[in-house]
Amino acid sequence: MYQIRIVLFVLLLLNSLSDNLFAQTKLFSKKEIRKLTDQASQYLKDANFEKSLESSKLALHHSISTNNSYYTTISYNTIAANYAELAEFDKAIFFYNKGLFYANRTNNDTLKNHINNNLGNIYCFEKKQYEKGINYYKNSLTYSQKNADTSQIFLTKLNIAWAYFDIGDFQKGYPSLEFVNKYDTKYGDQTTAGAINMLNGMYYGYKGNHEKATTYFLNAIKFGKEANQKSDLSFAHLEYSRYLLIKGDYKKAYENLSNYNKITEELYNKEKLEKANVAGINVELDEYKREIDKIENEKDIQLQSLEKSKMIVLLFTVIFIVLLLLIYTLFRNNNFKKKTNAELSKTNKELIIAKEKAEEVSVLKSQFVSTISHELRTPLYGVVGITNMLLDEHKELADSPHLSSLKFSARYLLSLVNDILQINKIEDNRIILENLTFNISDEINMIKNSLSFLAKNNNNFILVNIDPAVPEYLIGDKLRLSQIIMNLVSNALKFTNNGEVIINVNLEKIENKSHFIEFQIKDNGIGIASADQDKIFDKFVQVGRKETDYQGTGLGLSIVKQLLGLFNSSIALQSAIGKGTEFKFVIAFEFNPDKTYEIINNIQVNMNATQMINVLVVEDNHINQLVTKKTIEKNNYKCSVVDNGYAALEILDKESFDLILMDINMPLINGFETTRKIRLKGIDIPIVALTAFDKSEITEESISAGINDIIIKPFDSVKLFKIINILVSKN
């Protein structure tokens, strides 16, 4: 019965599941593996164990290589079945467990069902570990019930009944036998008839119903002979002989036991007996070798016993010395560790002090840059403003090279201050990108117009090409984008004569709401040598400068590179001497039509442009007073000027103003404190900070004080009047 159970499992498994899994792996590999597993199964059925193992191992190699858990399980199962047939049950258990591991990696409950059943067979009927075996049978039943496979439930119940009857627990085994008897007509066949009749014979023998018991035992022997089921037939004779022995019919008991022994001998062929013989001889040889080794060891022990005392003393001495050395080493290591910890502690303190000094230096550097920029911007505001006033009031000086040089020098110095402040802010991580909606075409053309003077100086043309696919309005930091393009275009204009600078804007790709825009700035100027291209983005680098050339501070491209880093972008350069230069970078901007329409619909139209606006200027610098007043009055506004915050508070008690331009850095009382006192008076007219400080440095305190907006000196007069009109209109 055991041999038939193993073969039956392999054949049922291949027939019932191979068609369903055929499409799950690659066609060629699966056919090859299936052919090998079929061969292995047939060899096992023919008791050709050597070829069955060879085919199974080859199939196992292919199935593992193709990561096919199903055929890996089949291969391990066939290998285990071979070892079970060769009575090497420990090896069989090992390979069944390997098969169960891979079966659990599949969704095939039939595989898990059969392997649990096979493990139950070995533990119950070969290892005689019935409790463990019955647990495997119960696992098998769980999978059978899950699949509603009554035929497999029938076979497992048969095995469970047999296992319980084997240990004499007929009460636990009978419900399974009752199930088997109920479905015998539907699921039983010649291969199971002998075993079923034998189990009934055992049960009725236990119950004392000798007539039924005898009938069932004789039927079991009859069906075993007819179906040529020698294994079941042998067990039928064995159990019948046990029953007859209990009845006292010793003659028939002896006859049936003899039949059992005869059939059992037939089940093991000559080759199996020879293998068992060889194994027995090997065991005897091992035993003889152990006896010889034992005699030799006794002689050695006798010879060594004379020296044992000396060796013990010597070993004790050596161990004692080693312990002393170990203690000494631990003592030295402990002292060294203390010394090292003290040095590390000292070094850590020095590092903390150095870190604090570095942070202090960084703060001082930022404060120094901020202070210097403020102190430079204040007089530059006066220089630029007075220069513009001279040009406006004395038209005959419009072509004066001296005034042009003065204005150029002031703007150059202002540009240098802005660049240094920008680098300092980037290095201190004080720049946060804004998300504002802007018109990219307007921004590019504004840059073009602002650089037209520089283009005319070198007889250059600026061309702008914007891809129609680029949305008109995008969301991002337009100020930083303008700084990047402004620096690249002005750089291109400086190194190009009688040529052209082209600004290309193209849509590279779209991911969700992000539009990746590619910007190209090309010129046909002098170009950059390949040896210099790696260093032009470093600070204060000026490549190939001549004494008569003006190339700026060397900060522009460094600022460009660092600003692009804020956009998570990088810049690419292509250039050759005499052929021009091309810079290229890509920035992702958000495109949100809903936000765009909202901003367009909320654009304010200034309805008060023609009204008379009365402005109060609070400024302690007399030159700046003059410049600011002239600028405001030039726009037909009324303007009053006071020297400090207290004077402002006094005049506000007497006169009414539409807007206040407030300097921040003033003696006696600064602009923030003056604003707070104005607000405490209940005066809510707009106040604009007109200062040389960087906007990011004073924004938070300005809002806290009640300031409405900030303009940095020197300022663009157009921007100033735009802010004035908006704030006055709102108020």
From TrEMBL:
Residues covered by the Response regulatory domain: 614-728
Enzyme Commission identifier(s): 2.7.13.3
Domain Histidine kinase: 371-591
Molecular-function annotations in GO: phosphorelay sensor kinase activity
Pfam families the UniProt entry points to: HATPase_c, HisKA, Response_reg
Catalytically driven reaction(s): ATP + protein L-histidine = ADP + protein N-phospho-L-histidine
Bilayer-spanning residue ranges: 311-331
InterPro entries attached to this UniProt entry: CheY-like_superfamily (IPR011006), HATPase_C_sf (IPR036890), HATPase_dom (IPR003594), His_kinase_dom (IPR005467), HisK_dim/P_dom (IPR003661), HisK_dim/P_sf (IPR036097), Sig_transdc_His_kin-like_C (IPR004358), Sig_transdc_resp-reg_receiver (IPR001789)
4-aspartylphosphate PTM positions: 663
Keyword terms of this UniProt record: Coiled coil, Kinase, Membrane, Phosphoprotein, Transferase, Transmembrane, Transmembrane helix
SUPFAM superfamilies associated with the record: ATPase domain of HSP90 chaperone/DNA topoisomerase II/histidine kinase (SSF55874), CheY-like (SSF52172), Homodimeric domain of signal transducing histidine kinase (SSF47384), TPR-like (SSF48452)
Coiled-coil segments on the chain, per record: 278-305
CDD domains: HATPase_EvgS-ArcB-TorS-like, HisKA, REC_hyHK_CKI1_RcsC-like
Protein name per the record: histidine kinase
Organism: Flavobacterium sinopsychrotolerans
